[in-house]
Amino acid sequence: MKLKLNLIMAGLICAGHVQADAIIGDSLSKHMLTPKPTYDVIVSFDEHADIDSVLRPLAVPYLGLQTLPMAGATLTRVQIEQLKENPAVVSVYANSPLEYYNYESGEITGGHYVQDQYGVTGEGSVIAVLDSGVDGTHPDLTFGDTVIENVKIVGDLDLTGGNTTFIEGVPNSDTSSGHGTHVAGTVAGSGAASANDERRAFYHDGIAPGAKLVGLGAGEGLNILFGLQGFDYAITNQERLEIDIITNSWGGGDGMEFDPNNPINQASFEAYKRGMVVSFAASNSGPEEDTLNQYAIAPWVINVAAGTKDKELADFSSRGVADHPEKLPDITAPGAAITSTRAVNTAIGAMGPVVDPAHPDYYLYYHTISGTSMATPFVAGTAALMLSVNPDLSPDQIESIIKETADPMSYLPHEVGAGYINVLAAIDKANETQGERAQFLAGDTQWASQGEWTMVDDNDPRLTYVGDWEHGRSSQASGGEYREVDDDEGTILASVRGDRIRLHFLVTDDDDSDVRVVSNGKTIGSARVQSANASEENPQQVTVAFTGLGDELVNQVEIHAGDEDILFDAMEIDGDLMESDVTYTEVTTTEEGTMGPSAENLEVQEFVFETTEADINVDAELSWTGVADLDFYLLNAAGETVASSASLGNPEKLSYWLEQPGTYTLQVSGYISAVTPFTVTRTITTASK
Fold first, then answer.
1. Whose CA is closest to 20, among 5, 37, 35, 3?
2. Global pTM?
3. What was the pLDDT predicted at 650?
């Protein structure tokens, strides 16, 4: 199954659509301000099959992933600009270095009551540890027992698509760092090296010692490409290895805004959508605010802050921003002074070895460090315990339960999230919760690929109702109103950009009704709409989800009512709802000019045009003859730049979805010019019924 990206397109044309330029990541844009021969990048494609056909003709070293439609490559500025205009390319981001998150010193807390009194140890759960590697020769992390697979990730770029090598069956994949071994022990270390401790048998075991581990080792030099390769392996082998959880104690770009199109966020969303719980470390840049790991603030991952043994917030734990919808941790977990498994002869393994006179051999097997890196696997292990008692829980339910059962802390939400994790309360609630994993895997996820779902009310004029639909009112309806149709007599037509929808219905009795969805002439599936507790006095909201609507730019969706009355309330789309019964026409205008002598955009020429309510998109191209470098900008009525193309290429192209009608200006500036004749071609797309 390929990763389907639902991006907000800049243009939409009916027959042969206008493709917006690919997204260039902010970090890469900044890097490109400093001239370099080449740039290391991550290229995301609409289809996996496009990787070789697009990159191989460039004769550059690149490395395609196995499942995700992405590749690492080394490109020149001109090649990046070429890819930006390629309709098969979704985005180009810098392959930036990442950091493992760790600090110093202590001993793990929490969870032993669940192990000792309930006998819940995480048995049946599998956690992938994407980190520096795992030392499977450690007695607590025995390869072939606790560690069921240990992978060393080796990847090289080359001219034919690269060579990703996942070396499986490696006893010790953590030979230089030691970070991943400590993380792995916190999740599921067996405690075998401390089995006979008089204080408690298996004294230094992990929070879920009965769980199994898959080590994904990227070594010390982690970067975005290695991170993507780790996710790619976990997604590709999810079913074979039965991976339930991916824990990530690394990141970068602290304080950046949430970017759903970032390749790491795309990868973590694909893992989440496939039913894996994904945890990320909040980062160790506290106590300053707005310092959260950019990958931890993706709404579908569990963002973990670090706490102390007395349930205070660790000083080093990164903080978010007050009242920001995304910049806050989800939960705080033990992360200060955590004792876990030690990989000897490694850089981090040399830090804080345990000195216990009563157990001198612990010096070889355990060490104590601190960080959100240590808190994150604790949460991953807690998720494993929850799945042990209730394997039908969805990733959304696991995060929700962890947050709902947290102990309050005397801090603000953007500092600690929901509070300090309470493992016992989380297990109790998980045990009594009805799992919704099947619905989740059918597409009924809390989060869409861009974060929030697009909500469409039943009164939206872009929906077409076929049949005898009647209006109804209810305080339980999302907008106070709904549409009702009698037995098997109604259809709703919708033009959907995206491949997933969630349909909301009101149920007023205990009778079953059904709904069937057809997309592009093909039946996608059907679902029962029912609620045992519903009545006229107590109507219930019921949501059913459908995925796999199709790969068309706009999917023509039909929602068919079944053999009982049905009350339609609203639709959510992982994408957007488009106008139906619309014809798109294009009008092209060509203008010419001559740029005189100019340097660094000193000379500017402008071409003003008007747009109407019916105009939806403008595409423009600037071309010239001779040796020059001209730049191209689109300004709105307020004089703000809303689109630009300022590369070294000829022609320069830009595309813009018109948000409002009015006066726009195409601006040509001479970055380098003697006397340069140029041509501006402008195409306006108009929608009409």
1. 5
2. 0.75
3. 82
